[in-house]
């Protein structure tokens, strides 16, 4: 008996962890790969056979560091998500046995997206923060990468063998930053610099981790470059704007949350951003398509299609 393939998606950053068949920004990668979307791990309906499809451990607002996102209620920090992932495996073992459970997890895809919140909801949260007093931007980024490496090592220890790690987007170019930090509609310098520091360090760290393991367990997606493409030339991708959000208020519709009282565009497919922070579904599909089939300009050391074609390897 061979186990069903599951995908463990550790999804965070602007989130955290999930187990199923491909995940990206919630369920979009699932759709792209024809996979069933997973339930949140704490959903009471996640029982029996549904556990074999996977589980989503993600929690919006959390980050690499434990103090990121503490201003939000009821968040699930990444260390707790990893505990739930370990607990999940025990529950799967009770259904299909230890050996098949190990095979299922080894064959799963893990998507993890961390880092963006550590800047947006921590370092840059206010003009003066504890982290800004402790570290300059370069050293803070080194701290994040060092702590991120520990998280990825723990995932590997827990059986993850195919892990997609997405970088941060262009943090200074989202409508929220344009509304609060930009005077002329240009990307905000400091958050953009943070992303420009963090993402190359992430690629470098992943390459070193793969070398240490002796296999390309971890694959990185340069989502900053993917988004820069349609931010810099929105018309080439069928958007009328990459600065104004479809739903929001204030300059660039970049203030507050998207609510029933917000400005709402007539056609979201013409906008790169849905709300002050998040790309629209059309933009996300562009990102997911690039993750699936993109060149080494965007994916390192391979794209997701190539990764999923490889057999998982136990160490």
Automatic annotation (TrEMBL):
Q: Where are the transmembrane segments?
A: none
Q: Which GO terms describe its molecular function?
A: hydrolase activity, acting on ester bonds
- List, alphabetically, the Pfam families matched: Lipase_GDSL
Q: Name one GO biological process term.
A: lipid catabolic process
UniProt keyword Amino-acid biosynthesis, yes or no:
no
Domain of life of the native organism: Eukaryota
Q: Which InterPro entries match?
A: GDSL, GDSL_Est/Lipase, SGNH_hydro_sf, SGNH_plant_lipase-like
The Swiss-Prot or TrEMBL record describes its family as follows: Belongs to the 'GDSL' lipolytic enzyme family.
Entries under PANTHER family matching the protein = GDSL ESTERASE_LIPASE LTL1-LIKE (PTHR45648:SF58), GDSL LIPASE/ACYLHYDROLASE FAMILY PROTEIN (AFU_ORTHOLOGUE AFUA_4G14700) (PTHR45648)
This one is known as: GDSL esterase/lipase
Q: What is the lineage of its organism?
A: Eukaryota, Viridiplantae, Streptophyta, Embryophyta, Tracheophyta
């Amino acid at each position: 008996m061979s186990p069903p393939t599951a995908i463990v998606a550790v999804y965070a950053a602007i989130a955290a962890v999930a187990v199923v068949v491909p995940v990206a920004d919630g369920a979009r990668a699932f759709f792209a790969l024809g996979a069933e979307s997973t339930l949140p791990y704490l959903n009471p309906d996640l029982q029996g056979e549904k556990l074999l499809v996977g589980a989503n451990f993600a929690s919006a607002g959390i980050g690499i560091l434990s103090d990121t996102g503490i201003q939000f209620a009821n968040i699930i920090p990444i260390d707790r998500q990893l505990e739930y992932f370990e607990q999940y495996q025990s529950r799967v073992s009770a259904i299909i046995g230890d050996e098949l459970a190990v095979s299922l997890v080894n064959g799963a895809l893990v998507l993890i997206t961390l880092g963006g919140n550590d800047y947006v909801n921590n370092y840059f949260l206010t003009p003066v923060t504890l982290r800004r007093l402790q570290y300059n931007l370069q050293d803070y980024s080194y701290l994040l990468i060092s702590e991120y490496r520990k998280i990825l090592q723990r995932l590997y220890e827990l059986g993850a063998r195919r892990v997609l790690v997405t970088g941060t987007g262009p943090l200074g170019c989202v409508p929220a930053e344009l509304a609060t930090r930009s005077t002329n509609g240009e990307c905000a310098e400091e958050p953009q610099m943070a992303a420009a520091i963090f993402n190359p360090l992430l690629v470098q760290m992943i390459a070193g981790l793969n070398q240490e393991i002796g296999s390309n367990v971890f694959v990185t997606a340069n989502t900053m470059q993917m988004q820069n493409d349609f931010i810099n030339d929105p018309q080439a991708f069928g958007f009328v704007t990459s600065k104004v959000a479809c739903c929001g208020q204030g300059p660039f519709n970049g203030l507050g949350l998207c609510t029933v009282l917000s400005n709402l565009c007539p056609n979201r497919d013409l906008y790169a951003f849905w709300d002050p922070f998040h790309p629209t579904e059309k933009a996300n599909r562009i990102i997911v398509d690039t993750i699936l089939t993109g060149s080494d300009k965007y994916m390192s050391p391979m794209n997701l299609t190539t990764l999923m074609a490889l057999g998982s390897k136990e160490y």
